[in-house]
Amino acid sequence: MIYYAKIEQDEDGLWCAEFIDFAPDLIVAEGTTLEEALIQAHSILHEYLAYGLPQKPQQRQSEKGFYAIEVSPAMIASLNIRWQRHKLGLTQQEVATALGLQQPNYARLEKSGKMDLTMLDKIAKALKINKASLIEA
């Protein structure tokens, strides 16, 4: 899964990155080099994705000034779980109960996406989806 950051050099020579699909005109990362701005954009993207329910990424491969920021496998699982739960209209409490977990423990799993295959299988069953769908980009 890839999100795209628009990265441009400003008049002061700083490289500024923004995710225009999330918050147009909001600069979310800066760097003195393009590489530094890319590293900052990656870190900020993962922080942003860990909270809330962001939209699915837009395709922007051919647009000038846009750079691909790859999402980690754990974050892909986290996003797919949240998107599927919302699609079904379920709360975290309802899924936690179906899994035999306390809601705060389930929330940590859902936020991080870090879990073993057994738990991933249980979550997939609770969300009525194929386990592979939860880990594909």
From TrEMBL:
All residue ranges annotated as the HTH cro/C1-type domain in the record: 81-134
Superkingdom: Bacteria
Pfam families, sorted: HTH_3
Molecular function in Gene Ontology: DNA binding
Entries under InterPro entries matching the protein: Cro/C1-type_HTH, Lambda_DNA-bd_dom_sf, TTHA1013/TTHA0281-like
Protein name: Type II toxin-antitoxin system HicB family antitoxin
